[in-house]
Amino acid sequence: MKVTFYHKYDSLAASYRYRFQQFFPYLEEDGIQIKTHSFFSNEDLKQIFSHKRKALSLIGNYIQRAQALYEDSSDLRVVYMDALPYIPYALEKALLKEPYVLDLDDAIFLKYQRYFFLKNKFPRLFKRAKRILAGSSFIYDEVKKYTDKVVYAPTVVDLDYYSSQKKEVGAPLTVGWMGSPSTSWFLKFLQPLFEEMSDFRFLIIGADNNLNLGNVKNLELRPWSEEREREDLLEFDIGIMPLENDLWSRGKCGFKLLQYMACGIPVIASPVGANLKIVEHGENGFLASSLEDWKKSFEYYKAYPEKILSMGKRGRKKVEEEFSLQVWAPRVKDFILS
Q: For residue 145, which of 112, 110, 114, 118 has the smallest C-alpha distance?
């Protein structure tokens, strides 16, 4: 059996590695022949993140994707979001052959509803799909309004990859964030609090180059590196994930939290979307809405640093039992192939 995976990005993007790539060995062990096609290359992604990508260059990306879809002779296609981003349904229907599986790890289909020529695209794609994989409960509930072919398939992490665990607490405590440039702007909400917290260290990895957090002391902005990813994470004493409470954020899958917790790092997160399912308040981390809630959570960790390791261990156990590749790979394989 031949399966082609269509993703928006290539291997530099976490969504490619964690929604697609890490499942390939489990499919290949069953004799599945895998082919991939990325709308944006890694070089394209670097240009996008550095704000150097020109709109005209998108034409080539669309031509390459359209050609790949037209020439596709595989038995099944697995499509991240949609095959032709921001292109009306009629053209995608003409090029995207059936059967296909859709994979959704954010609520982009809700953004499409703002545009007259796109608002019905995803509902129609849902109806033609063999199956839809929903990365969060929020996405599942939204897609369920259109079809019963949706299944819950959270973003998960490989326990073997995150085998190293937090073993000691730093002084001062390091508050860490790891993510992509597009999500780093959520950190602006915490800037006033960060500026007050002179007795903490702040390590921000992968943020937008234009992000300005003002007069925060002990702040280090570091580019994301696949080679250093695990080493960087283990510098964190507390992992954070601030979000806005909007439709877009409610569709997020809580991936940052899973990375932190897999390394035995306790967390503080906004009580939005998948975060509510991942964080057990007071057990493996804290949920914080207001700046005052965030401040109290930071102060708790500072007052009881011994809790950092014990709460981190409970977070690791949560990931092992509910959000690990080892648990979910057989299920996802079945979702795709059955």
A: 110
